[in-house]
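Lab notebook, design round three. We kept the backbone fixed and only want residue identities now. Task for the bench partner: fill in a sequence for the structure below.
Input structure tokens:
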């Protein structure tokens, strides 16, 4: 009989943690399209009724801008076993400038919230 096929060389870990709500965290798998992941996170974290889109930011307040990736793999910007903060995306008033990000996570007592992202930084 022919030999059994070799298992994939890399079984990478795509799990990461999202902080949201009142000191809550959730575990998610980044191995999918960015747009699908954001929709799933929004529902799973009970923000499905929120009119604004959501995104993730690093713990230092840097937005990941997953929305811009659309149908690209979320694994291109998310680090395996990384920890991110859920935030609400507020579009610029003029519709052309950079949006602002408002965190949807309240840290437990004794923990610091993420700082706001630096203003006016363009890519």
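Proposed sequence:
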């Amino acid at each position: 009989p022919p030999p059994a096929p070799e298992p994939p060389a890399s079984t990478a870990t795509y799990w990461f943690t999202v902080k949201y709500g009142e000191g809550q965290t959730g575990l998610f798998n980044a191995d999918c399209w960015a747009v699908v992941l954001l929709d799933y996170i929004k529902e799973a974290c009970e923000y499905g009724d929120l009119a604004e889109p959501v995104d993730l930011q690093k713990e230092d307040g840097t937005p990941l801008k997953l929305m811009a990736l659309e149908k690209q793999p979320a694994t291109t910007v998310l680090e395996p076993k990384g920890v991110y903060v859920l935030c609400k995306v507020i579009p610029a008033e003029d519709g052309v400038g950079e949006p602002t990000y408002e965190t949807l996570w309240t840290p437990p007592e004794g923990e610091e919230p993420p700082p706001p992202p630096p203003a006016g930084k363009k890519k």
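Keep this in mind before ordering anything: Strands lie at 15-22, 24-29, 54-58, 83-90, 100-103, 105-106.
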